[in-house]
């Protein structure tokens, strides 16, 4: 078997060859990394040049079979699984069933009796009407394990098949060995299985009449069944399924075991595909064995199963057992199956209750990374063309896949799985790095050679769009950030309006990281944040802004689909009016413009801007905005309502929605103090965050329990008679002053809201779907912002520990007094308050790279009362 390194590049390709592979996972030959995300430097695509010792050329113009996924079989007594896409389930007893029906009689009604402990779903002799059919014949824990699996992955493909029909249908009256008697056709039995599994919440993806139909082993449940018998069963089963609502269930025939994996099976697969190119092929069972070499197992599994099977048209690559004990059991009593050596499952469950992930787990798990859906419930990967050239082409085994998107406007994911088996010798198992180039659509990247198997992923437009550009979004930042979708290139672009460097830095880098090409236009150009001891710079007046907007229009930068504006950074009412005119112009050109408006007028009871800004903001900009992201103080300024309870928040949201015409509101931060009325209301509504917002990693000097930050997302419906949908989450407050938090949060809301909107609907008009889009975007933005703040606070504490500025020390002096004695101390304190944006790259990318796990905001039940 072999080693996998997974590199998932989440959409940072630029047209001029700036594609980046930023997410790399590895499993190495020496086990120093096991499905581990690396911190390797970014790998960029550049203009095509000299090739490496191996040259991988991906050709997405050549498309092969759709994949179903990688996985294994959940045997009756196996109770663990991995997050794979396909689950194979035996119907009734198998060679790995340790428990069954015990009886004391060998009479007709209980042929199992004391003879054997095998079971089917109908063990009543001669029950041709299947009146005694019951899935409850299986051990009860089988169904609890299945429920657990479906709770984790409700989209898993369930593939079912029996090792034997009921004993009374067979010659010899036993499930172990024998043949299906000529007078019986178990199509009705199989249909009832599909029907009852579906009724229990386990929809069947595919069914096979018989496992290993040429195997008649008398030591465990098996059945010999001819091809003509299977065909007759299939012909009877198909109309039963079709006429009862199961037309989508596939029927797979003649699944038989194989040997000599590199020999005749390959010829057979190719011969079958060439004869029946529209028929599907499934690789359904293989197993490792105890006592073998770890790295050679990795290489073998990757060569023959994870890479090899799809290259010979298989839609699945499945291992045998998901889980077994340390001796490869439990097994059917008396069976000679999987003995000397014992078969090894993907997971070994030890006697002390711990478990070990085996080499087959890492092989299939890394291969799965190339094909898992990018969107929840979306399409799975499809194999595409790839070749390997160069003087070391033999050292790499490669497969390539494309994963399409739920929304055809989104960029496809292109992945390659690469095994490096450039070993010095078969005894040392020390693969040497291979300097390889990867070519895709005319650009190229150089890999410095990894001693493992890797999966590399990039995002690009569909080849069907007749474009060869990679994905990039572009953003022009002016006083905030605006987003543009370039019609001719179909590439999201962003216009923005920012101020001094904190605003643009906090908003620009995260957007760039998420695939936006950002152009920054500062409406206030300061040397640094005004909180420093010294600062200087200039403001952009109305005439200058109008001039900038005019030039943007001439250069067609205003063909935009989204606008993010930190309006409060615009200096003065006149300049703010110019921004309102510009936003009105953009809305006239594009009625579906996504306009995210961050007020940035003040915080903590203090205004940052002149009083004359508020009327322009409230009367002109609010009605234009699609989403606004004010903090608690800015909500109070706009509504003149003090936020101290659910009633006051309800009144403020009603004012914003219905008095000011704002469709989507995200109140970024309402401070909730323990013991307050609002605290009791938040707790009663179940809005407190769970363990995902714990203080793990922070020092004890930070008390996260006495204050919370309540984030609220509220969406008005198209139908005004329907109350706005209100979601909220209260997260621990990380104390301290940090610059650029609101800018970061608003930029993330825009990016995730834009993505969610275009995944759900092609229009930005508010629907029930866009309500969930807002809460989803706010949840992701909140989770990422909180992670950045924690990282920044930890950095501040580390710096404090290295100086006399320890914030936990009991010192009688105030900050101002200490700053006056040591002027540079204020500079040091301000530096610790600048967000650790660059260092938080992985936190920002988590959702784009499919690694993100977020605690979603919760519906505020009863918010609007009766």
UniProtKB/TrEMBL annotation:
Keywords annotated in UniProt: ATP-binding, Hydrolase, Kinase, Nucleotide-binding, Signal, Transferase
MF terms (GO), sorted A to Z: ATP binding; hydrolase activity; pyridoxal kinase activity
InterPro entries for the chain: GH (IPR017853), GH59_cat (IPR049161), PM/HMP-P_kinase-1 (IPR013749), PyrdxlKinase (IPR004625), Ribokinase-like (IPR029056)
GO BP of this protein: pyridoxal 5'-phosphate salvage
Coiled-coil ranges per UniProt: none
Cited Pfam families: Glyco_hydro_59 (PF02057), Phos_pyr_kin (PF08543)
Domain Pyridoxamine kinase/Phosphomethylpyrimidine kinase: 589-672
Chain intervals for the UniProt region annotation (Disordered): 798-820
EC class: transferase
Gene Ontology cellular-component annotations: cytosol
EC number in record: 2.7.1.35
Keyword Nucleotide-binding: yes
Signal peptide: 1-18
Glycosyl hydrolase family 59 catalytic domain location: 135-258
Top-level taxonomic group: Eukaryota
Biased composition (Polar residues): 798-813
Family: Belongs to the pyridoxine kinase family.
Protein name: pyridoxal kinase
């Amino acid at each position: 078997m072999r080693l996998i390194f997974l590199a998932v590049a989440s959409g940072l390709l630029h047209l001029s060859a700036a594609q980046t592979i930023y997410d790399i996972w590895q499993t190495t030959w020496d086990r120093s990394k096991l499905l581990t995300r690396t911190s390797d430097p970014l790998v960029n695509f550049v203009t095509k040049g000299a090739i490496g010792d191996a040259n991988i050329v991906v050709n997405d113009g050549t498309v092969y079979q759709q994949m179903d996924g990688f996985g294994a079989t959940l045997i009756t007594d196996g109770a663990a699984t991995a997050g794979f896409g396909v689950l194979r389930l035996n119907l009734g007893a198998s060679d790995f069933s340790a428990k069954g029906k015990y009886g004391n009689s060998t009479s007709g009604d209980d042929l199992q009796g004391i003879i054997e402990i095998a079971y089917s779903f109908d063990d009543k002799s001669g029950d041709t009407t299947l009146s005694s059919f019951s899935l409850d014949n299986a051990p009860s824990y089988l169904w609890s394990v299945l429920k657990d699996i479906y709770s984790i992955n409700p989209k898993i493909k369930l593939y079912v098949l029996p090792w034997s029909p009921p004993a009374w249908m067979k010659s010899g009256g036993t499930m172990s060995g024998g043949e299906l008697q000529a007078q019986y056709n178990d199509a009705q039995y199989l249909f009832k299985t599909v029907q009852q599994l579906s009724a229990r919440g386990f929809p069947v993806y595919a069914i096979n009449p018989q496992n290993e139909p040429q195997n008649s082993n008398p030591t465990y449940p098996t059945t010999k069944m001819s091809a003509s018998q299977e065909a007759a069963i299939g012909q009877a089963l198909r109309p039963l399924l079709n006429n009862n609502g199961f037309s989508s269930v596939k029927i797979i025939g003649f699944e038989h075991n194989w040997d000599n994996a590199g020999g005749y099976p390959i010829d057979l697969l190719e011969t079958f595909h060439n004869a029946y190119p529209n028929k599907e092929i499934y690789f359904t069972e293989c197993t490792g064995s105890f006592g073998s070499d770890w790295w050679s197992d990795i290489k073998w599994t990757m060569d023959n199963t994870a890479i090899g099977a799809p290259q010979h048209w298989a839609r699945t690559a499945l291992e045998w057992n998901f889980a077994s004990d340390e001796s490869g059991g439990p097994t059917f009593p008396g069976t000679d199956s999987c003995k000397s050596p014992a078969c090894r499952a993907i997971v070994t469950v030890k006697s002390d209750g711990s478990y070990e992930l085996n080499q087959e787990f890492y092989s299939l798990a890394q291969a799965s990374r190339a094909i898992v859906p990018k969107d929840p419930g979306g399409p799975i990967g499809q194999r595409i063309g790839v070749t390997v050239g160069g003087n070391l082409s033999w050292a790499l085994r490669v497969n390539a896949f494309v994963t399409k998107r739920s929304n055809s406007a989104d960029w496809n994911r292109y992945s390659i799985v690469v095994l490096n088996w450039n070993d010095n010798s078969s005894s040392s198992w020390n693969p040497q790095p291979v300097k390889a180039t990867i070519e895709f659509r005319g650009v190229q990247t150089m890999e410095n050679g990894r001693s493992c198997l890797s999966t590399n992923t990039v995002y690009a437009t569909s080849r069907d769009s007749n474009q060869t550009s990679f994905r990039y979004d572009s953003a022009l930042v002016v006083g905030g950030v605006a987003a543009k979708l370039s019609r001719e290139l179909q590439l999201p672009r962003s216009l923005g309006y920012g101020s001094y460097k904190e605003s643009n830095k906090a908003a620009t880098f995260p957007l760039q990281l998420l695939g936006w090409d950002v152009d920054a236009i500062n409406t206030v150009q300061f040397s640094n944040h005004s909180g420093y001891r010294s600062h200087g710079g200039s403001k952009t007046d109305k005439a200058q802004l109008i001039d900038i907007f005019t030039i943007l229009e001439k250069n067609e930068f205003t063909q935009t689909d989204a606008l993010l504006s930190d309006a409060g950074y615009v200096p003065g009412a006149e300049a703010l009016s110019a921004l309102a005119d510009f936003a009105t112009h953009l809305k006239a050109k594009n009625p579906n413009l996504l306009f995210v408006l961050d007020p940035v007028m003040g915080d903590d009871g203090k205004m940052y801007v002149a009083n004359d800004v508020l009327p322009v903001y409230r009367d002109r900009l609010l009605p234009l905005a699609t989403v606004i992201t004010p903090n608690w103080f800015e909500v109070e300024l706009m509504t003149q309502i003090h936020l101290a309870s659910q009633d006051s928040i309800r009144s403020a949201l009603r004012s914003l929605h219905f008095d000011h015409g704002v469709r989507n509101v995200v109140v970024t931060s309402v401070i909730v103090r323990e013991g307050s009325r609002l605290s009791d209301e938040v707790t009663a509504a179940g809005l407190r965050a769970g363990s995902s917002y714990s203080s793990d990693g922070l020092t004890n000097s930070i008390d996260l329990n006495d204050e919370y930050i309540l984030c609220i997302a509220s969406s008005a419906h198209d139908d005004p008679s329907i109350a706005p949908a209100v979601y909220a989450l209260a997260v621990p407050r990380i104390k301290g002053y940090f610059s650029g938090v609101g800018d970061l949060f608003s930029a993330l809301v825009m990016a995730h809201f834009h993505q969610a909107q275009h995944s759900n609907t092609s229009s930005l008009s508010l629907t029930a779907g866009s309500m969930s889009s807002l809460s989803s975007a706010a949840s992701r933005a909140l989770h990422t912002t909180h992670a950045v703040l924690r990282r920044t606070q930890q950095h501040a504490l580390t710096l404090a520990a290295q100086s006399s500025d320890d914030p936990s020390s009991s010192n009688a002096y105030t900050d101002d007094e200490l700053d006056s004695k040591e002027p540079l101390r204020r500079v040091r304190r301000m530096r610790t308050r600048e967000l650790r944006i660059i260092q938080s790259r992985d936190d920002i990318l988590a959702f784009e790279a499919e690694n993100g796990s977020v605690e979603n905001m919760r519906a505020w039940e009863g918010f609007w009362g009766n």
